[in-house]
Every structure is written in structure tokens, then in C-alpha cells.
Design brief:
By secondary structure, the chain is mainly α. It is elongated, with a radius of gyration of 35 Å. About 75% of the residues lie in helices and about 0% in strands. The longest helix is centred in the middle third of the chain and has 33 residues.
Length: about 700
């Protein structure tokens, strides 16, 4: 049961948890991590011993079967503090390794100590989700998890720098082993510091009692829920990937003969890549679905793994550089995929029974690791039996590639059909660019206004998945400039999901954007908005009513021409008449518009209004751009428009110039020319997309 903590207590606990996240890697990444792996390789550990070390993190998860039973009723934060204290005490044993007789004994003693430390860690990790849920409100959990991950990466960066400096100065120690021991002592100190920091956490709730059978029963409950079943599948695939990818270290040390100092230099690049990917995730995670992130990250990991398989095709002089690049890319992608997995796991664990379900995922991780070890052994045996011309660790990297491709296929399978297409669309450069541009606009914007509205409109109209999500969010903004930009963007790149929000804007009697919203409904398509638009035809605001008539025409439900003409005759302002002319043009009512043009010419209407009527008539006949060209020619030189219209009507050659006539005659002849050039009028609904 998770405790309900007051908000001030939650804030204090979050600050302490972030401190723990900074201290923990200074101990953990030395006493268990790459540095410890290098110590094992220094003692001459075999590939079997290294595989057991790589797998220890997951194999010790078997204790999770008993943990909810053994820990029932205990406070979750107290469990964590005691588990980390136990791990610190066990890590002291590493400092005694130089006293042992030979390197073989040292290797297996190290393996035993690591498994004991990981057993303690397993108990602590089981309580982690409950602690985080207690100290962070649900709406802040994702952001808080990202902060703790960032603090961890910074701690790893500091640790890597310390290890690199010590390895470069190893001549100051009696032997390389003592240089390792000096760093191990550094790690042990920070293991105790982490445990002390954890001891200051408030009580965060108690572990719900569950027998081993009840824990196993939770597997069936998790399998029946699609969102939890997805985590089970990903756990099966993700855990062996880390195991197989760890053999990169073996390749660097055994095959390339790379010195520890150089390996730590590469690790420094990998940590920086991890920090960069963490910051990138903080920007894109809310805009890209979890499945899309899984697909993209594991597509990168599969590519890196395949490159590792073929790395010996690279000339020897360039191979070290190639391996360095692959190492850094793998570090960044693995860190990102681990962060996404951890976040998804926390979100999908039930609040009041998190420990039992966390134990289920730990047990699935054990199964995945056992299967991964079996697959590695089988792949290596096949390589030897078949005599394949590959390097010593190609079998591990091939398994890594296969598992990453499996995650990609699983993501597509779970998405299915059109959703799978959308998943891939989320990873396109255009969509990613939209996300980063939106982030930049949000962080640099000061005051909303016309200039910012235009910039936002351009961004929102990108037509990408992220752009559509931004439109939906912006349509709910309290700022009218923001909503104005979103309405115009939805008009430029229409999508059906925007209809409800735009209808709400159109129906809001207090909104100053009702005409914009009504106009946008005409571009979004579908029949959902037709009843609303019909209801607006009688509104006191005649501009709004005219815009509703225009959008009805666009949606394929136009008013009869007689009603439109009656509304036109009753309209007082040009903007209302303009909306009704668009409705006639969209409906292909060229004859009615030409009649209005003839009347305007007889009454001596302004030339600009005659030009507008002529353009709408041309639009109704499907020749809007042609009419623009003709009128532009007439503006340049009197009679030029008539010449162009005559050529169009009679098919004459350029140069057969008729005598110049008046502008009114030019417009009339132009309309006849357009009618003659088009043997059949377009069906109702044809025309351009003028607002």
C-alpha cells in the first residue's frame, strides 16, 4: 500500500531522491559496472565467467518470487535503504581480492560477490516503483523519472572521468591491480554514502503480502491486460540485448587489445551520448508514442549490431575508429531504450500492488536472461561446428541484431495497419523537425501576437503527426492568437480529429474566432459539423451566417442558389457578400455569378469588385488561374487581357492581336472565352480553396 504524502514532504523526498540518483552511480558503476568488468578481464576471466557477470543483474531477479512474501508489511523506503546498505557491506569484499592465491580464484570470488550485491539490489529495486509513486504525483511521474535518469548520467560521467584519470596515472601504484583497488575503494565509500542518503527518505508505504503462488498468479493477470502484456514481451526481448551488447567490451579488450584508459575514454563518449539522448528524449517523448520510440531506438541498435558483426571488414588502420563510433552509438541508444522501458514499466504498474507486479517483470527478466545465455551458447557452438569465417564475438552481436529487429517487428505488429503507418510517420525527419521547432518556439517565445501567430501557424501546418498533436493542443489554448494560428493551420493541413475542437470554437458565443472556426470546418470534411452550420444560418451576425453557408457548400450540403442569392441581396458588408460568392463558386454556380457580374457592370460598380466577381466566375468554371493571368495582363496594358482571351477562345496564334476594347468588354469576352474553352462545366463542388 502506497502512502499518501503531503505535498511539502513529497518535494523534500524528491530532492533527496535526486541526491541519491547523483551519488548512486559513483559507487554502483564502479563496484558493479564496466570498471568491475575490466577488473575481471584483468584477472583473465573467461567468456563464460564474463557472461555470468553480464547476466547477474537479471538472473538475481529470481529472488523476486519470494520478496513480496518475505518483505510483507515493511516500509518500502526502509527496504531500499537497507538493501543498499547490504550492497555496500558486500562490496567491501572486493577490496580483499588481492589477498587471494591466484587469478582464477579471484575471478570466481568476484562473480560470487557480484551476485550477492545484485541480490541486495533486486530487493531494493522491487520497492523502487512504490517509492517513486509515493513521492511524485501521477502527472509529474514521467518528468521526475527523466530528472533522476539525468542525474544518474551525470554521476556516471563523473565516475568515468575519475576512472580515466586513475588509469592514465596507474604508474603511481605498485601494480595495475592496486590501481583497480584504489578505484574500488572510491566506489565502496559512495555505496555507503548512497545508503546513508536513502535512510533519510520518509515512510512511503508498505509491501502488500503475497505468497510465491500469488506472485506467479500476477503473471496471468498481467498477460490478460494488453498494456502489461506488451511490457512482458518487451522484457523478454530487451534483457538479452543488454547481455549480448556487453560483449563489445570483450571485443575491445581481447581482439583489439585496447588499454583500460582508452576504453574509459570511449566510455566517456558513450556517457556523453547517453546524456544527449536523455535530453532528446525529454523533448520528443511527449510527442512520439512509446511504440515509435521503441521502433526507432531498436532500428538504430540493430544497425549498430550488424556493423559490429562485420567490423573486421574495415581496414585495420581504421578499425579502432569504427569501433569507437559503434561503441558511442550503442551507448546512447541502449541508455535511451532503458530509460523508455523504465518509464513505461513505472506507468503501467498498478499503484496499490506495484511490488507484486514488479516481481513478475523481474521473473520474466530472469527467464529472458536464461534464454539469452542459451542462445549465446548455441550460436557460438554453431559458428564453431560450421566453421563460419567470423570474429570471436560475431555470434553475440548477431543475437543482439536479431533481438532488436524483433522489437521493431513487435512494435509494428502491436500498432497494426494504419497505426503502423502513423508509427513510422512519427520518426520521419519532418516530424522530428516539427517537434524540435515547437520546443524552440515554446522556450524562446515571449509575448503572443500577430508575428508569433504567423510563425506558429507555419509550424502547426506541417501536416506531421507532431504538427497535428500541436494543433489539437493549441486549439485549447486560452490565448486567441494561438487558437487563430491553429485554426488556419488545420485549414491548410486538414485532419478529422480536429473537428470537435473546431466545432466547440464555432459554437462558443463569446469567441472572437467564430468565423475562422466556421470557415475551417468547411475544410476538415465529413458531415459531423453540418447540423451546427445549419443552425448558424439564422445567426444575428450575418458574416457568421454567410461563412456557415460557404462551409456547407464545401462539405457537399450547399444551400439552393436562390437562397444564396437572397442572402447576397440582403448582405450589407462586402465581407458577407464575399463569403456567399465563395459558396456559389464552390458549388459551381458560374451562371449566377456571371449574372451578378453583368449587374455590377451595368450599375458601374467599382472595378475591383468586377474583377473579384470575374475571378469567382472563373473559379466556378474551373479556370481561376487562367482568369488571374488574363486580368494581370490587362493591368499591365489595356487590351492585353482581351488579346489573351481572344487567343484562348479562338485558338489563334500569338501576334493575331484584335483591336483594343474597353475593360468591361475585355472581362465579358474573357468569360465567354473561358466558357468556350471548357466544353463541360465542372461538377458541383469543384473549384479552388479560397477562404
Amino acid at each position: 500500500m502506497i502512502a499518501a504524502l503531503p505535498r511539502p514532504v513529497q518535494r523534500q523526498a524528491q530532492a533527496r531522491s535526486l541526491l541519491v540518483s547523483s551519488l548512486n552511480p559513483l559507487g554502483a558503476s564502479i563496484t558493479f559496472g564496466q570498471f568491475m568488468y575490466l577488473l575481471a578481464l584483468h584477472y583473465g576471466a573467461s567468456d563464460t565467467a564474463m557472461a555470468l557477470l553480464y547476466a547477474s543483474l537479471n538472473l538475481t531477479g529470481l529472488l523476486a518470487l519470494l520478496a513480496p512474501w518475505l518483505l510483507a508489511g515493511l516500509d518500502t523506503s526502509t527496504i531500499q535503504a537497507r538493501a543498499w546498505f547490504a550492497r555496500a557491506v558486500i562490496s567491501l569484499g572486493i577490496l580483499g581480492l588481492p589477498l587471494l592465491a591466484n587469478d582464477d580464484i579471484k575471478v570466481w570470488a568476484l562473480v560470487g560477490l557480484v551476485y550477492l550485491m545484485m541480490l541486495a539490489r533486486t530487493i531494493g529495486v522491487l520497492a523502487n516503483a512504490s517509492v517513486h509513486k509515493a513521492i511524485s504525483p501521477p502527472r509529474e511521474l514521467a518528468a521526475f523519472s527523466a530528472k533522476t535518469h539525468g542525474r544518474w548520467n551525470i554521476g556516471v560521467l563523473m565516475t568515468t572521468v575519475v576512472c580515466f584519470v586513475v588509469m592514465q596515472a596507474q604508474g603511481l601504484f605498485p601494480s595495475l591491480e592496486w590501481a583497480y583497488m584504489a578505484l574500488m575503494a572510491f566506489g565502496v565509500v559512495f555505496n555507503f554514502a548512497t545508503a546513508a542518503a536513502m535512510a533519510g527518505m520518509p515512510r512511503t508505504g508498505t509491501v502488500t503480502a503475497a505468497s510465491p503462488l500469488a506472485t506467479l498468479a500476477a503473471f496471468g493477470e498481467a498477460w490478460r491486460r494488453p498494456e502489461r502484456r506488451e511490457v512482458l514481451w518487451l522484457t523478454l526481448l530487451q534483457m538479452p540485448i543488454g547481455l549480448a551488447a556487453a560483449f563489445q567490451l570483450n571485443y575491445l579488450n581481447h581482439v583489439l587489445g585496447m588499454a583500460p584508459g582508452m576504453i574509459f575514454l570511449l566510455t566517456l563518449g558513450g556517457v556523453l551520448a547517453s546524456i544527449l539522448t536523455s535530453r532528446t528524449l525529454a523533448v520528443v517523448a511527449g510527442r512520439i508514442s512509446t511504440r515509435a520510440l521503441w521502433f526507432g531506438l531498436h532500428a538504430v541498435l540493430a544497425m549498430v549490431a550488424l556493423c559490429w558483426c562485420a567490423v573486421e571488414l574495415v581496414p585495420i588502420g581504421s578499425r579502432t575508429i569504427a569501433c569507437a563510433v559503434l561503441w558511442v552509438m550503442a551507448a546512447g541508444a541502449i541508455a535511451a531504450s532503458t530509460a523508455v522501458y523504465a518509464s513505461m514499466l513505472s506507468e503501467r504498474l498498478p499503484r496499490d500492488d506495484a511490488t507484486r507486479f514488479s516481481a513478475v517483470y523481474q521473473l520474466v527478466g530472469v527467464l529472458a536472461t536464461v534464454l539469452g545465455l542459451s542462445a549465446l551458447a548455441t550460436a557460438r557452438w554453431l559458428v564453431e561446428v560450421l566453421g563460419l569465417p567470423v570474429h570471436a564475438y560475431a555470434h553475440a552481436f548477431a543475437l543482439w541484431a536479431a533481438l532488436s529487429l524483433g522489437v521493431c517487428l513487435l512494435s509494428l505488429r502491436l500498432a497494426r495497419g494504419a497505426a503502423a503507418v502513423d508509427l513510422l510517420a512519427q520518426l520521419t525527419p519532418g516530424n522530428l523537425s516539427t517537434i524540435f521547432r515547437a520546443h524552440q518556439l515554446r522556450t524562446t517565445e515571449r509575448d503572443a501576437g500577430p508575428a508569433q501567430s504567423l510563425e506558429r501557424e507555419e509550424l502547426l501546418a506541417a501536416g506531421t503527426p507532431a504538427g497535428r498533436d500541436l494543433v489539437l493542443e493549441t486549439l485549447k489554448s486560452p490565448d486567441s492568437w494561438h487558437r487563430h494560428a491553429a485554426l488556419r493551420a488545420a485549414r491548410a493541413a486538414p485532419f478529422a480529429a480536429a473537428v470537435p475542437a473546431v466545432m466547440a470554437e464555432a459554437a462558443d458565443a463569446e469567441s472572437s474566432l467564430r468565423v475562422e472556426a466556421v470557415t475551417t470546418l468547411g475544410f476538415l470534411g465529413g458531415s459531423q459539423a453540418i447540423p451546427l452550420l445549419r443552425g448558424l444560418l439564422g445567426d444575428e451576425d450575418r458574416w457568421l451566417a454567410a461563412a456557415a453557408a460557404k462551409s456547407l457548400a464545401r462539405l457537399g450540403d450547399p444551400l439552393p442558389p436562390s437562397e444564396l442569392l437572397a442572402l447576397y441581396a440582403a448582405a450589407v458588408r462586402p465581407r458577407e457578400r464575399n463569403e456567399l460568392l465563395i459558396a456559389l463558386a464552390v458549388d459551381g454556380r458560374a451562371d449566377e455569378i456571371e449574372s451578378l457580374l453583368a449587374e455590377a457592370m451595368r450599375n458601374g460598380a467599382k472595378q475591383s469588385w468586377q474583377d473579384a466577381l470575374a475571378l469567382y466566375a472563373a473559379q466556378a468554371r474551373g479556370g481561376r488561374e487562367t482568369m488571374r493571368t488574363i486580368l494581370a495582363a490587362e493591368d499591365e496594358r489595356e487590351g492585353a487581357g482581351l488579346e489573351e482571351a481572344s487567343i484562348l477562345a479562338g485558338g489563334g496564334e500569338v501576334g493575331d492581336r484584335p483591336a483594343a476594347r474597353s475593360r468591361d468588354q475585355a472581362i465579358a469576352l474573357t468569360l465567354r472565352a473561358l466558357a468556350a474553352a471548357q466544353s463541360t462545366a465542372p461538377p458541383h463542388g469543384a473549384g479552388g480553396k479560397a477562404d
